Fold:
Amino acid sequence: MTNPLNFEIPVEHWEYVWSKELKGGILIRFAELTRKMLNKRLVKFFLRFRPKGNILEAGSGSGMGLVIFGKKGFEIVGIDYSNNSIELAKKNFKKNNIKGILVKANIKKIPFLDNTFSLVFNQGVIEHFSISEATNILREMKRVSNNLIAISVPGNTRFYKIWVYFAGIFWKFPQEKLYTPQELISLFKKASLLILEIKKIFGHYACIGKKY
Structure:
């Protein structure tokens, strides 16, 4: 695994990943279980900062994070540029009897007005971009938020590296950057965001902040 400074994973890779999840299987169920555990802890952490009303996941993937928010009564919106991601999220919404909005869009240019959402977040997204692009994405997330911005990224931790080693036997991981808390502080500072808290969760770092 590397920490490249300039890279971006093409959409074709994500179409392949989410198509595998749509088909299901034993390995996919394992991935779903680990993601569900992480999302539950993330949502619990984010809720400590009392978002109100509507929530956007910028890079919504399977939509399972949004499902948890939806079950708690929030209005949920997800955007992703992968067709298969949108289909998988729709499937998970229906399976959990959750209503929400899903839009095919690029997180580099979020198709919503300024100050639309109380919380804009993503999980497992920012690490796939260069520092420069990650900064611009955070600024775009900040633009459409009227309060909170949060991300979760894989940490440069022993726990995560061990997990990737064993999971990598069955699953091809794309390039990603492993973050330290200091690097997250620097990233949020570049995006002119005030950090409220950083928390380690299952080898990941969850970071929540707000506008100055």
Observations:
- The longest helix spans residues 26-47.
- The domain at 11-211 is CATH 3.40.50.150 (Rossmann fold).
